[in-house]
Amino acid sequence: MGTPTLAYLRAVADAHGLPWSDAELAAAAPAVGRTLEMLASLDVIELAESAEPTTHFRIV
Is 60 helix (H, G, I), strand (E, B) or coil? Predict the structure, then answer.
């Protein structure tokens, strides 16, 4: 995806009620782009047919 545009970030911020300035959104854009790329990379990981979601969580 690359770095998201300021218009994209403004639309998301407005949709979630975040009163961020354009400067704050521009500063966050590279990190948001890298995060979206990492999330997209999860879609291509091959899982075994026997893979099941985690059903038990432990708090250490």
Answer: coil
**Domain-by-domain residue ranges, the chain?**
6-44
Q: Rg for the chain (alpha carbons), in Å?
A: 17
pTM (two decimals): 0.69
Distance CA 60, CA 51 (A): 24
Q: Which of 48, 54, 3 is nearest to 29 (CA)?
A: 3
What residues contact 22, with CB distance under 8 A and at least 6 apart? 6, 10
- 22 and 9 in contact (C-beta within 8 Å)? no
CA distance 33 to 4: 6
pLDDT, tens digit, for every residue of 30-40?
999 999 999 99
Q: Which amino acid, 48?
A: A
